[in-house]
């Protein structure tokens, strides 16, 4: 029974920003749990295709690359039309692509605020809106489709150096509950994962030298005393998107080793 509870068998999934970091960890998890197709997106096509090939090889399912820039609504429309042309329905949408720019209030530029909000909030909202029809097509009471937003611990703590990023993630978390209620009757369940510090390209500068004093200090501060890794992210995403997590709705899962508690 437990094995089936965590199965992603026959599911068709779309993950934005799947060429590296958290999106690629989630893609691997879905495929290893039996998903039949996992679409991943990113701007850099070579890297994306390489990741899709790598993940297809390690599973019975297929990882498919769709390249494109999601920082504009034109990019969102292009992705929607490509996925529409390939599939009649999807079971899972993970809104993961995001950027984290340094934006202290005294020096923050309007462009940095716009860039952050465009990719981290506007695109996920309108991508989700455009895919609601595809998400509800195969969804049932027992096996609803799922939308996941990737938020951040930055939504729960006060970090003035990343003001725009924090605000963008807080918007996502508030949106999670609003959207959850709005699409309940379409058998779509909407939740968010709020990661703490994870190994990825976004955080590379912080962890690439494991002997750096700043990295050691960070590990000391995180109550779990380590960064999150591929298994931490894959495990929670698979749980949320399989039968196991079908009763979560409008929930924020803080996946941060207790980091938010220290602020
Ligand atoms: N790592 C952490 O500790 C951490 C903690 C909390 C939250 N998060 C969140 O996790 C999500 C993933 O970040 P990550 O840490 O995994 O970073 P990452 O390794 O840099 O991955 C980001 C992914 O998004 C894609 N992407 C970036 N800009 C894009 C755009 N304009 N259009 C389409 N795709 C784009 C990247 O590919 P291209 O560059 O080729 O487009 C890549 O596939 C983000 O929303 C981030 O805020 C991360």
Description:
The chain is α/β, with parallel strands linked by helices. It has a single domain (2-262), classed as Rossmann fold (3-Layer(aba) Sandwich). Helices cover 44% and strands 15% of the residues. It has helices at 2-5, 21-32, 45-57, 73-86, 110-137, 163-182, 204-207, 213-221, 230-241, and strands at residues 12-16, 37-42, 62-67, 92-95, 145-150, 188-195, 252-255. The protein has a 7-stranded parallel beta sheet with strand order 3-2-1-4-5-6-7, with helices on both faces. Helix 6 (163-182) links the parallel strand 5 (145-150) and strand 6. Helix 2 (21-32) packs across helix 9 (230-241), helix 4 (73-86) packs parallel to helix 5 (110-137) and helix 5 packs parallel to helix 6 (163-182). The protein is globular, with a radius of gyration of 18 Å. The model has no long low-confidence stretch (mean pLDDT 97). NADP nicotinamide-adenine-dinucleotide phosphate binds next to helix 2 and strand 2.
| SS strand fraction | 5-15%
CATH topology: Rossmann fold
- The amount of helix comes to 40-55%
Class based on secondary structure composition and strand pairing: alpha/beta
Q: How many domains, as an integer?
A: 1
Identify the CATH class: Alpha Beta
CATH architecture term: 3-Layer(aba) Sandwich
Termini separation comes to 40 Å
Runs in which pLDDT lies below 50 for 5 or more consecutive residues are none
Please provide the ordered H/E string of secondary-structure elements: HEHEHEHEHEHEHHHE
Put simply, the count of helices is: 9
Shape field? globular
The average pLDDT value, as a whole number, equals: 97
């Amino acid at each position: 029974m437990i094995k089936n509870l965590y199965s992603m068998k026959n599911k068709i999934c779309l993950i934005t920003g799947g060429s590296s970091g958290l999106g690629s960890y989630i893609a691997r998890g879905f495929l290893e749990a039996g998903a039949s197709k996992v679409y991943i997106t990113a701007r850099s096509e070579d890297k994306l295709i390489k990741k899709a090939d790598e993940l297809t090889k390690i599973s019975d399912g297929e990882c498919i690359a769709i390249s494109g820039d999601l920082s504009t609504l034109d990019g969102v429309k292009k992705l929607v039309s490509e996925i529409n042309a390939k599939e009649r329905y999807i079971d899972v949408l993970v809104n993961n692509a995001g950027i984290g720019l340094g934006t202290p209030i005294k020096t923050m530029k309007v462009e940095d605020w716009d860039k952050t909000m465009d990719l981290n909030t506007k695109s996920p909202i309108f991508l989700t809106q455009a895919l609601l029809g595809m998400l509800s097509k195969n969804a049932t009471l027992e096996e609803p489709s799922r939308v996941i937003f990737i938020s951040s611990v930055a939504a729960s703590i006060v970090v003035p150096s990343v003001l725009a990023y924090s605000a963008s993630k807080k918007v996502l978390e508030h949106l999670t509950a609003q959207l959850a209620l709005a699409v309940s009757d379409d058998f779509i369940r909407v939740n968010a994962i709020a990661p703490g510090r994870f190994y990825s390209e976004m955080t590379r500068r912080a962890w690439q030298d494991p002997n750096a004093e700043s990295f050691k200090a960070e590990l000391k501060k995180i109550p779990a005393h380590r960064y999150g890794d591929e298994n931490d992210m894959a495990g929670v995403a698979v749980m949320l998107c399989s039968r196991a997590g079908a009763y979560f709705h409008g929930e924020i899962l803080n996946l941060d080793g207790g980091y938010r508690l220290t602020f």
